[in-house]
Specification:
The chain is an all-alpha fold. The chain folds into two domains: 98 residues, Rna Polymerase Sigma Factor, Chain: A; 66 residues, Arc Repressor Mutant, subunit A, CATH 1.10.10. The chain is 72% helix and 0% strand. The protein is built from nine helices and no strands. Helix 4 runs parallel beside helix 8 and helix 7 packs across helix 9. The longest helix has 23 residues.
Length: 184
């Protein structure tokens, strides 16, 4: 069992502090991943809170077929999709759109320290949502292809092809910005 799985198991047995350690361990990464789905840092923070509330209230079963992090990010993805479906039915402009992006920049700065990575991250935000998600999961969260496939509910082959297209799109976008990144 990895740390998240053992902490979750302790939480299910009644140790409330175990959930706090899960939140500390996975919150920032989950917020950034969900932000790649919603394109709004405030919404991503709300959805992340909802994910942890689901863990606390519903106590979903973790089967261990994947890593705990993969399982948690899948819950995050489904929660984000549900949120997007619900809010797309409403034709109002969320008040969060009027907030400053200072929170987003602060989280990104803490999470991504290197200037090149910040530029790449900003260019990634301009990409197709599936491209953003696959790049974020593989390169920022370091999931492998099979874990990414489970989170995004695609086959390994689809993820490989999606990753290839995402990297190609990212490279051309970076070149358009006047930046050449050797490792793409």
């Amino acid at each position: 069992m990895d740390n998240g799985a053992s902490s979750y198991h302790r939480f299910l047995e009644g140790d409330k502090n175990a959930l706090a350690s899960i939140i500390r361990e996975y919150r920032d990464g989950l917020v950034l991943y969900i932000c790649s789905c919603t394109d709004n840092i405030c919404t991503a923070e709300e959805i992340t809170e909802e994910v942890f509330i689901k863990l606390y209230v519903k106590k979903p079963r973790f089967s261990g077929k994947s890593s705990f992090k993969t399982w948690l990010y899948s819950i995050g993805r489904f929660t984000a999709i549900d949120y997007i479906r619900k809010t797309s039915k409403l034709n109002s402009v969320p008040i969060d759109d009027f907030y400053s992006l200072a929170d987003k920049e602060e989280i990104e700065h803490n999470y991504i320290k290197d200037e090149q990575k910040i530029m790449i991250h900003n260019v990634i935000q301009k990409l197709n949502p599936d491209y953003r998600q696959v790049l974020h999961l593989v390169y920022f969260e370091e999931f492998d292809t099979s874990q990414t496939a489970k989170i995004m509910h695609k086959t390994n082959r689809q993820i490989t092809y999606l990753l290839y297209r995402a990297k190609k799109s990212l490279k051309s976008e970076l070149e358009r910005e006047g930046f050449i990144y050797e490792e793409l």
